[in-house]
User: What shape does this take?
Amino acid sequence: MNHPIRIKDIAERTGVSIGTVDRVLHNRGHVSAEVREKVLRAMEEMGYKPNILARMLVNNRPFRIACVLPDYRQDAYWVQPKQGVEKAVEAVHHYNVQVDWYFFDMFDAADFQQVGRKALEAAPDALLLAPIFRQEGERFLREAAEKQAPVIMINTDLETSEYLCYIGQESYQSGVLAGRLLDFALDNGDQALVLNLDRGVANARHLLDKEQGFRDYFASTHDKMVSVHSEIFEDFDNAALLRTWMEAQLERLPRLRGIFVTNSRAYKLVNALLNNTARNIKIVGFDLVEPNLKYLEENKISFLINQNAWHQGYLGILAAVNSRILNKEIPRHQYLPLDIVVRENVDYYLSRTLELPMVAV
Assistant: This one.
């Protein structure tokens, strides 16, 4: 059996000292670009994987994961991945895993950049990231790659190669699913609305992908014609303004029978429609947050698509441990199931969130 590749083996192959290889490996000290490239090439060709666990034990230090997430105090949805992270840290405590929290304003791309920069400057062993701002998220991933910092993404999958893995829903398919669910309630000639109760939608890839999936579903159906409309309402916390705006939409769209809310704020739409129940509009939204559950039970929300936010945080920590500590291969994309939740099965999904997967380490 071949022995594991050691730093000494790389030094012998490249003709440099063990100390030079160590400096390249830990990205410290002065090493010429030519020597650095030679050492890195040898590491790749020989299949060298650093034993991070041994290094941690020798140095008596924790394995640090920086969690860069939207501020959970701004939206109840983000409480769930935070809880998943906390559960996972308990499960892998024997590996001395430490989480450092970096919360950013979920409506401020500049704050995301600033907080993300602080996380990178702290030189963590891995990062768990929710890149809800597309342009700034792609820039962050490039900077992380330059620092050789592995990134696990949740919630939003960006089109770039500069990350370790993505864990979450397939946003486009969730939009397709929302279309299929509403299709059962719509007749030929009816109207459907994609409603983004959010800010900066043009820079939020996951929301755009959901809308595209929804539109493509109805474009592919031939048994009925459904007119799909799209709107963005950014002042969603102003209940009176949202109610007035929705009344105008109901006048503008006389055959509106279904609304797809692209995030966890479907309950805000229900609040705005409470005085307009005669039309019997079906609503599809996301996520098992408390106000959504209340209206699901009252049949004012027809369907919730569960994005498994707890599991995103939990599995993100496991991915970091499996990949960086135990040198295991992990799937680059870990798409979580798109659960269809109605009032008849909601108790099952609520209990299932407490049954997080066993540690695969």
